[in-house]
Amino acid sequence: MASSMQNNRVSPPGYCVCCRTCNMWCWRAFKWLPVLLIVSIVTWSYYAYVIQLCIFTIESTVQQCIYLVLYHILLIMFAWSYWRTIFADIKPIPEKYKLPETELEKLLSAETEDAQRTILENFAKDLPIVTRTMSGSVRYCNRCVLVKPDRAHHCSICSRCVLKMDHHCPWVNNCVCFHNYKFFMLFLGYALLYCLFVMSTCLPYFIRFWKGDFGMSGSAGRYHIVFAFFVALMFAISLGSLFGYHCYLVAHNRTTLEAFRAPMFRGGADKNGFSIGAYNNFKEVFGNSPNLWIVPVFTSAGDGCEYPVRREHRLQTFSAPHDARYDSMGTTRSRSENGDSPPASHIP
């Protein structure tokens, strides 16, 4: 641990600043390729569905209008959610978690792991953290020089620590985390509905073309409709499994990282340590306003740093300020607002 506190990287001989800058911009451009691929597929699907199916193939005007209205509603919600997931404002870790220069100097000059652990424990004693490393010490990031808040992790792609990190998704070129997890869930849900709608409305014409009844469709239009059906089917299968898995994670209040490695508390690992009941788990991500649950606006509860935990972990938590407590969704309220005097803690 002592050697890991320092992160000195020596560039190879002849490696100039210009080359480093060029590599950085090339890497940034490369990371946008999956997003451009998704945008290209959606753009093509718009042409295939609106132009080739609705305008050139469907003969009924009423059916055209119904299909076009429903299609554009799903497309707008899908694109809106995708945009918010990509360009969400991923806020940095609060300053109170960062080691000041004096503490950092002590940490780097400590000769033993026990001394380093003591320094981190003393610094973190007033921080609202309940999770630990596998060895029981405070979770510390030597790259960002900070104590990690609960559920925060360092993303090697973004080169920063991220609050409630779920995973880094190349398809959105962003970390899926506290600040955009609701948008990511809506993106998956609307993308799945979009694919199912395209697939179900193209299916009758796909069967007709398969039987040789081409109607008013030209050869190029037939191929676009057939390909649209197969592409929608392929993505629906993939999105269905992914969306179902993340619905399971939301219901159990876990991230993808926590599903693979349970968070460690003072009493040991507990994969359900942050679970407060399926409904409360859902509201922690989607908020308390039902009318905004399906709209890609930020309504998630809390600040991304502090979370309610299960009853058995209550006595292991930090000593919270005497003038604040958590409500059922992990937000803080003063005693004067609650009208009672129990100490601040986490709900079961």
TrEMBL record:
Annotated stretches, region: Disordered: 323-348
Q: What is its main location?
A: membrane
Q: Which reaction does it catalyse?
A: L-cysteinyl-[protein] + hexadecanoyl-CoA = S-hexadecanoyl-L-cysteinyl-[protein] + CoA
Its placement in the membrane is given as: Multi-pass membrane protein
The molecular function GO annotations come to: protein-cysteine S-palmitoyltransferase activity
Q: Which family does it belong to?
A: Belongs to the DHHC palmitoyltransferase family.
* Comment, domains: The DHHC domain is required for palmitoyltransferase activity.
Name used for this protein in its record: Palmitoyltransferase
> To which species is this protein native?
Euphydryas editha (Edith's checkerspot)
Q: Organism classification, top ranks?
A: Eukaryota, Metazoa, Ecdysozoa, Arthropoda, Hexapoda
